[in-house]
Amino acid sequence: MGASLSNLGTNGSAAALGLGDIPESCVARVFLHLTPPEICNLARLNRSFRGAASADTVWQTKLPSNYQDLLDLMPPERYRNLSKKDIFALLSRPVPFDDGNKEVWLDRVTGRVCMSISAKAMSITGIDDRRYWTWVPTEESRFKNVAYLQQIWWFEVDGEISFPFPADIYTLSFRLHLGRFSKRLGRRVRNYEHTHGWDLKPVKFELSTMDGQQASFECCLDEAEPDDAHGNQKCGHWVDYKVGEFTVRGSEPTTKVRFSMKQIDCTHSKGGLCVDSVFIIPSDLRERTRSGILK
């Protein structure tokens, strides 16, 4: 009875109330608690929702506290006079820096900072000697090139990054592929001609930060290990090898991270490995961004 009376106007006629009658400021307060994809979907409902979905006060809360550091990697004309919503959209696409060998972007759901570092930004023993390494162009890498190892005895890859990461817990991982691959008649073809030596001794992965955090991990890259997606073999698939985690408590001072992978037992050679990149991603987002076996 009470619900029915509440819908009557002063002259006794039914008042047609709907979502469009909710004040834009109230909608904006609700949007503060939703994810960017949810906000964009609700913006289609009516003018009030659409206005709230464009409010700077809403999108300011979706951006990381140091989003200006990411914008500073671009020419100012790319972001000048943009709304906060447009800035979020701009930063949710990869922002290249360091001659295009590194990329940073915001996760589209959470607005948290993610990063990828190309093999070209790393120090690789013997990389300039074509007897050992070659660069292979491929669409399977976000950087369009991967380093391919034919054969070597001393295998060592080192890298570092200095960046104002916002406060979070991050996972660092290497993206590797046993065997070479190519396209033939539209089909992906794998070649294991040079693949050897990775089952004899483990590769050691390490990371360290300037504030003393350390992590390490060892495994044989060619070990047969059951996996729901790829059976018992890692050969022929991109594998994400987790090195470890590190914690950032604030974007100042800049966080410096060193990372490496090594197999320097010179009693045997090893080869047939593609090195693509290193990923640094908030730890609880890693499962959503996986593109192969997670080690």
From TrEMBL:
Top-level taxon: Eukaryota
Organism: Phaseolus vulgaris
InterPro entries: F-box-like_dom_sf, F-box_dom, PP2-like
Domain F-box positions: 16-62
Protein name stated in the entry: F-box domain-containing protein
